[in-house]
Design goal:
10 strands, alpha+beta, 361 residues, 7-stranded antiparallel β-sheet
Length: 361
């Protein structure tokens, strides 16, 4: 029996009437038009288009050809090929997988390489006003996050005499600070043993750290360390890396009055994990700052060691102080930085130290 159909090659809108032939090997369907041109389809690759509405007629396709179609008036004229109803794999699946893999790689590249590179470069050129706006907004968000619904934001410790003692420490460091560096220091009424720096020159102590210190020089050593992060703009760099491209744009345009970015940065800046190089640089800066203020650089190592002995590496003590993998080396380095034959002076008087210890009363 002669079989007929209409072949659409996908390039022209009009179909061609073709005669269908099955060679003896039954592996190929031949379609020959009236000019003698023949198109061959491998039987194993022929699929029926399932969404065709006809009852007996059918539209066939070749699984590897997204456009060509063969229309036959009666599917019963053709053998019942078992694979005819099999779903054809989507065209370009491999390409789609490649695009998906490329998209994942692009995101990984942005997060792992481009954002850190941008952060490192932009941290040095971000306008001071925008940097300060981020620090101020984040500081207020930290107070809100650690406060209570009933009592409001976490309280600031603002005893006049206690704050004067802290200002005296800052004044002792100022001659060795880079010109134009603006520093604001705060104490939050919270038992956490912690201190950290925020973008824009804000240094924040928790009451718990002052309570844990045995001497004012230990507080001064932590202060000097945080000033090292301020001078290196590590908090801004860390904020940019943490907030990603949204943070980069926000800092560039100074749009940090609030929002999701500030909420996200709150925890990241309290518990900042700086690189080993950044921590070492902040320590080295602190040694010089302390020595110029006639305070022993070993005070930084003493503070770290005593807190570690008392609280362990993780029990309630700030992670970026005591869980750093080279803490022992940092303690040794602080003690090694102390020059011999030098007489050290108190950073503040005994009376000022007593005032600082009661700053939150």
């Amino acid at each position: 029996m002669t079989r007929h159909g209409t072949y659409f090659d996908g390039d022209r809108a009009l179909g061609r009437a073709v005669t269908l032939t099955l060679p003896g090997d039954a592996k190929t369907l031949l379609m020959t038009d009236d000019t003698g041109d023949t198109v061959s389809w491998p039987i194993a690759g022929i699929r029926q288009v399932k969404d065709h509405a006809g009852a007996r007629d059918a539209v066939l396709r070749l699984k590897d050809d997204p456009l060509a179609r063969l229309y036959v008036q009666d599917l019963n004229d053709l053998p019942r090929w078992p694979h005819l109803q099999k779903s054809a794999p989507p065209k370009g699946r491999g390409r789609l997988a490649m695009w998906a893999a490329g998209a994942v790689a692009a995101v990984a590249l942005q997060i792992g390489v481009l954002i850190p590179l941008m952060a490192d470069q932009l941290a040095n050129i971000i306008p001071a006003r925008a940097e300060r706006a981020l620090g101020d907004a984040t500081f207020e968000q930290i107070r809100s996050a650690l406060g209570s619904d009933a009592l409001g934001p976490l309280g600031l410790c603002e005893d006049t005499q206690g704050h004067a003692a802290l200002t005296a420490m800052k004044t002792a460091f100022e001659p060795s600070m880079p010109e134009g560096t603006e520093v604001s220091v705060y104490v939050l009424n919270h038992p956490m043993i912690n201190a950290f720096a925020l973008p824009g020159g804000n240094v924040v102590f928790f009451r718990g750290l002052i309570d844990a210190a045995e001497t004012p020089e230990e507080v001064a050593a932590v202060f000097a360390h945080e000033l090292g992060h301020v001078v290196s703009r590590d908090p801004t760099r860390h904020a940019l890396r943490s907030a990603g491209s949204i943070g980069v744009l926000g800092l560039l345009f100074g749009d940090f009055a609030g929002g999701a970015v500030v909420l996200f940065l709150t925890e990241r800046l309290i518990d900042a994990h700086y690189s080993q190089a950044a921590e070492a640089a902040a320590d080295t800066f602190a040694y010089e700052l302390l020595e110029n203020a006639r305070v022993s650089p070993a005070a930084l190592g003493d503070m770290f060691e005593r807190l570690r002995a008392k609280h362990g590496d993780q029990s309630g003590v700030v992670a970026h102080f005591l869980t750093h993998p080279t803490l022992s080396d940092r303690i040794d380095a602080a003690r090694a930085a102390e020059p011999g034959g030098v007489t050290w002076d108190p950073i503040i008087t005994d009376a000022q130290w007593a005032d600082l210890q009661t700053i939150c009363d």
